[in-house]
Task: inverse folding
């Protein structure tokens, strides 16, 4: 290697390492702080190393119930979004309804409004008129409404890229449309559905505003809201407990990613021949 | 096995007619090829037999029954797709056995049958592989096995060999021909490759722009093409077409074109009718009916040499009559032919085809 090229590589690697470190630091803090008895905003190796923060957090009934609530709302939302988006996207992709392209685009346009804060007042009024205030169902339905258009859009694109001849060959071989869907189309679409499931889970799991507005009782609040119970009356965070709770709060999402990439892999099948 | 029939079938996509007013009959046990250039409506016709497309008007019959509005699953047909359409998540055994699965056969029974068919097609050792783990030729045979695993009334093929390389294609073509002799199946086979159609078909339907221009046996299509389109599509290389100016002289037909000498042809009623419509006729001669001749011989065509290609058992000699009008002779010799700058190609009068000014064949020109 010539000297200038070598120098260039060293400079590039150093720069990349610095940028990497800048991103890694908060993550390291996030991993170390929960095990530190003293509240520190700087990065420090826990000394002494302790699990007492976790003890306190696990002893907090409200915070633990909130994690369970988050799970109910996220899983409920994911099932609704996954099932509805799959069926809707499949229909939009395979049928020849006139104007089906426009339908998806208009829905997509409005969806950014629905889950945005601008729509909070109407959503509040609708949910309250439906008598669903302070229920998990209210949160699940609102998220489903907000996430569905994007999920449909992504999935429809994915299904469009899968040759129709899969289902056609199944039907010619004697399968009904329903059989062709479940035996042939669904398994081929599955990688796309997995993407939707992970994406909507992460979205619901991390959301604060919608549950905060639609829920009343502390027994129904999800973790994103419960985090505020680790703030003192004066509004300053109790860093030690907050860090421990945050770590627990982020584990299900990490676990979901690991499970999905182990079980399905984030890959698309596509056709065998172009 | 069953017969298939189209009766005045039209299929429009919006304003565009992909298939227009097509009628034909396919007898029980016949192997019919739909032959034509890309976009002429072959696949659309096949898909209407399968029920994957519904005609805009007209009827489709299978086994004498009107199936125009039947769902594909109720037609008892088998189809091989151009892209094979193998299910990527199922191994070969499950792929091949899928038609039996939807017919409610038990797993052990359908896998035994899949193995049987796979063995015949020499893919029996690959049954636990996924489609992505086998070669293109093996994928093609898998899709064929899936079509053959159950007894169907009609077998449909949509360019099943077009994704194979030349050598595999010849092999698969021979196998399909053997299969047809063996099973006597009713088959409709779509292709744009005239050699495939000639080799496999009991009858060929030549299609052009959504219509059937000729429906006849391969030999008939080769010997008596109905139009210049058919003449130019069938044969390798296709028939040479030379525009000629025709005049009636002394009760005989005189044909004139640059470099062409041809003895006057006897007049017939058909020629008379054609001449009345226009005097610009088209003379057709197949490359294999041309040979190098001495200058001054009676039936010849002369022009500067364009190409002289020796391909082993035969040579293709092409002369250029100007403005891209070329004439090719196919000469059966395994030796290189020494030629001068100008070449004269000769032909026998009874190998001449004549088409009227609209491109339609003038029948019986040699009496
Ligand atoms: N679903 C469709 N929508 C619109 N046009 C179509 C559709 N299917 C086929 N066509 C058109 O019909 C014509 C015939 O198509 P096809 O039957 O596939 O031709 P071939 O198989 O002979 O190449 C083509 O011009 C094609 O673009
Ligand atoms: Mg086609």
Result:
């Amino acid at each position: 290697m010539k000297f200038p090229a070598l120098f260039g590589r060293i400079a590039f690697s150093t720069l990349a390492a610095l940028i990497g470190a800048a991103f890694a630091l908060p993550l390291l803090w996030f991993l170390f702080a929960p095990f530190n008895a003293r509240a520190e905003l700087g990065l420090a190796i826990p000394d002494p190393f302790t699990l007492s923060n976790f003890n306190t957090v696990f002893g907090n009934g409200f915070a633990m119930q909130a994690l369970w609530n988050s799970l109910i709302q996220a899983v409920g939302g994911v099932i609704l979004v996954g099932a509805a988006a799959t069926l809707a996207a499949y229909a939009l992709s395979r049928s020849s309804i006139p104007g089906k392209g426009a339908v998806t685009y208009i829905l997509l346009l409005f969806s950014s409004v629905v889950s945005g804060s601008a729509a909070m007042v109407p959503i509040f009024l609708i949910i309250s008129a439906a008598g669903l205030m302070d229920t998990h169902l209210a949160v699940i339905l609102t998220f489903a409404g907000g996430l569905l258009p994007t999920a449909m859009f992504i999935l429809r694109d994915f299904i469009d890229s899968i040759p129709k001849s899969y289902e056609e060959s199944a039907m010619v071989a004697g399968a009904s449309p329903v059989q062709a869907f479940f035996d042939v189309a669904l398994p081929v679409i599955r990688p796309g559905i997995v993407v939707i499931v992970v994406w909507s889970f992460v979205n619901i799991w991390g959301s604060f505003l919608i549950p905060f507005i639609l829920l009343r009782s502390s027994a129904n609040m999800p973790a994103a809201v419960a985090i505020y119970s680790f703030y003192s009356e004066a509004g300053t965070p109790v860093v030690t407990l907050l860090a421990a709770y945050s770590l627990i709060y982020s584990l299900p999402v990490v676990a979901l990613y690991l499970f999905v990439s182990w079980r399905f892999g984030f890959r698309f099948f596509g056709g065998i021949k172009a | 096995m069953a017969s298939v029939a189209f009766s005045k079938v039209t299929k429009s996509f919006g304003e565009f007619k992909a298939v227009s007013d097509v009628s034909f009959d396919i007898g029980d046990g016949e192997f019919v090829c739909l032959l034509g250039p890309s976009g002429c409506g072959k696949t659309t016709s096949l898909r209407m037999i399968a029920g994957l497309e519904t005609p805009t008007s007209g009827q489709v019959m299978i086994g004498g029954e009107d199936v125009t509005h039947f769902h594909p699953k109720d037609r008892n047909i088998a189809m091989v797709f151009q892209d094979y359409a193998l299910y990527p998540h199922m191994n070969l055994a499950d792929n091949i056995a899928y038609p039996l699965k939807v017919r409610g056969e038990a797993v052990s029974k359908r896998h035994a049958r899949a193995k049987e068919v796979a063995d015949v097609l020499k893919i029996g050792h690959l049954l636990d592989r996924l489609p992505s783990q086998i070669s293109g030729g093996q994928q093609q045979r898998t899709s064929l096995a899936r079509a053959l695993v159950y007894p169907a009334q009609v077998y449909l093929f949509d360019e099943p060999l077009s994704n194979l390389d030349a050598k595999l294609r010849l092999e698969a073509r021979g196998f399909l021909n053997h299969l047809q002799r063996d099973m006597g199946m009713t088959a409709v086979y779509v292709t744009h490759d005239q050699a495939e159609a000639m080799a496999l078909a009991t009858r060929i339907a030549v299609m052009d722009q959504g219509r059937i221009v000729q429906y006849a046996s391969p030999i008939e299509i080769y010997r008596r093409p109905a139009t210049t389109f058919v003449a130019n599509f069938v044969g390798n290389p296709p028939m040479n077409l030379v525009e000629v100016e025709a005049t009636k002289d002394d009760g005989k037909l005189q044909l004139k074109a640059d470099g062409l000498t041809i003895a006057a042809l006897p007049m017939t009623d058909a020629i008379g009718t054609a001449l009345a419509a226009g005097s610009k006729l088209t003379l057709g001669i197949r490359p294999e009916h041309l040979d190098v001749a001495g200058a001054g011989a009676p039936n010849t065509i002369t022009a500067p040499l364009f190409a002289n290609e020796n391909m082993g058992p035969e040579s293709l000699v092409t002369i250029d009559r100007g403005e891209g009008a070329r004439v090719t002779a196919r000469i059966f010799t395994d030796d290189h032919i020494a030629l001068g700058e100008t070449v004269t190609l000769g032909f026998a009068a009874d190998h001449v085809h004549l088409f009227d000014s609209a491109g339609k064949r003038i029948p019986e020109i040699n009496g």
